[in-house]
Amino acid sequence: MTNVHHHTVTIDGLEVFYREAGPQDAPVLLLLHGYPTSSHMFRHLIPALADRYRVIAPDHIGFGRSSAPSADDFTYTFDALTDVTSSFLEAVGVTSYTVYVQDYGAPIAWRLALASPEAVEGVISQNGNAYEEGFVSEFWEPIWAYGADPSPAHEAALRPALAREAIEWQYTHGVPDTSLIAPDAWEHDIALMAREGIDRAQLALFADYVSNRDLYPQVHDWLRSSGVPVLAIWGKNDEIFGAAGASAFRKDSPHARVELLDGGHFLLESHLDDVVRIIRDWRGTF
User: Fold this and answer.
1) Is pTM beyond 0.70 here?
2) What H or E segment, with its residue span, contains residue 213?
3) What is the model's pLDDT at position 1?
4) Catalytic, out of 33, 60, 154, 265
5) Helix axes of 210-226 and 78-91: crossing angle, nearest 10 degrees
6) Which InterPro entries does the UniProt entry name for this protein (predicted)?
7) Is 33 a catalytic residue?
């Protein structure tokens, strides 16, 4: 049995919770989670890859077991989440890594890469977007509208995304056999999202998401110039970030490996074994 350790480190007065497993001297695999979850989404992946990686998975501020200050006390932007993550990596002694991104983890990773491109040894994007082609319009229209005009009407249109039905949907949509999805996955997220003040924090991040879109041309330049190895492994039925977002990586990373699996947004819940097998095979090519 692989031992997974659960730690907390203080960064600028904020507590960052993280899970870690694997040899301290092994190559680092940094796992960056998405919305509305936490490092909990990697609970099965961490021990599955810890034989060859030092696997590290932090909870972003406002998520999981990390600090969740009010939106009055912390500026909930992707720049701010990246600053905390950068300081976290320094605190735990990580200077180079392969990054596994999903959903919100992607724009945080892209900022880290642009600030310190030499640190990133590889990119695994699992439904982690970097291209306009990846946006499913029906899902994103209310977010773009709120970002452009955070009016009460646009806020009201987004608030259902914070609720039980929408969170459960993120786990079950696009999954042919939903009996594979453990209900405790979404129950965990629902409980943490219900904490006082989290709604304002999440709305602030919705409003800031357009800043990620604006960053994409720089990300594409980095992919082209660095030649960093890329694995895009996607739940092809995702109705948030569509499969075209995976294939688009080949525009700037022509040797990217693209794997489209018959799953949804949270692919690890239904296709863990496939993901582990593909990562092991891909990592052995460089």
Assistant:
1) yes
2) helix 210-226
3) 76
4) 265
5) 50
6) AB_hydrolase_1, AB_hydrolase_fold, Epox_hydrolase-like, Haloalkane_dehalogenase
7) no
